[in-house]
Amino acid sequence: MTADDIEKAGAALACRALELPEIAGAATVAAYVSVGSEPGTHALREALCARGARVLLPVLLEDDDLDWGEDEGAGRLAPARRGLLEPEGPRLGPEAVTRADVVLLPGLAVDRRGMRLGRGGGSYDRVLARLAAAGADPALVVLLYDDELLDEVPEEGHDRPVHAAVTPSGVHRFTPRPR
After folding, report:
1. Residue 124 assigned as binding residue
2. Most buried by CB count within 10 Å: which residue of 43, 171, 175, 176?
């Protein structure tokens, strides 16, 4: 995809994501900064901040767990490990995500059951485990391109289904399976 294609898809994703009542009405959203050819998060993050939502961004720790900081705009992002961009401001601690109303998760694909295929680093698996341990129940939403919604993805015992996937063409909701 060209940079222009990625930007257009990101704008469409922002519009679609804001159609979800969970996102539109969220006071706090744990998001991420898209990099490379990932579906763009910039337009969505800007729209959320403009609506007065508190947007948290991940900070990759040495053990691949995630700390969090506030999104203070694109000009306040710094380069980090693995080509990521992270907020420059104060760190809020790994537990900050437990206070989010919505957690946006990156993914390579999601299947029609809501199972997410990540990049294999386990950072978001730790986030999902932390949420469960805290009894937190935010909406779990993955941002994808249309062709990344698949019939089935590989699944491991610790994987948890997400509630929805947003693609440029629409919102796809899932009924999580009992675990």
Report:
1. yes
2. 43
- pTM equals 0.93
117 is in an annotated binding site: yes
Question: Annotated binding residue at 38?
Answer: yes
Residue pLDDT, tens place only, 90-116: 999 999 999 999 999 999 999 999 999
Residue 2 CB-density burial (10 A; 0-12 exposed, 13-18 middle, 19+ buried): exposed
In order of their start, the domains of the chain are 3-173 (3.40.50.10420)
What region does 39 belong to: left with phi over 0, alpha with psi -120 to 50, or beta?
beta
Determine if residue 116 is labeled as part of a ligand binding site.
Answer: yes
122 annotated ligand binder: yes
Which helix (H) or strand (E) segment holds residue 45: the answer is helix 42-50
> Are 154 and 113 spatial neighbours (Cβ–Cβ below 8 Å)?
no
121 is in an annotated binding site: yes
Is 118 annotated to bind a ligand? Reply is yes
Q: Which residue has tokens 């009992």?
A: 178
152 annotated among ligand-binding-site residues: no
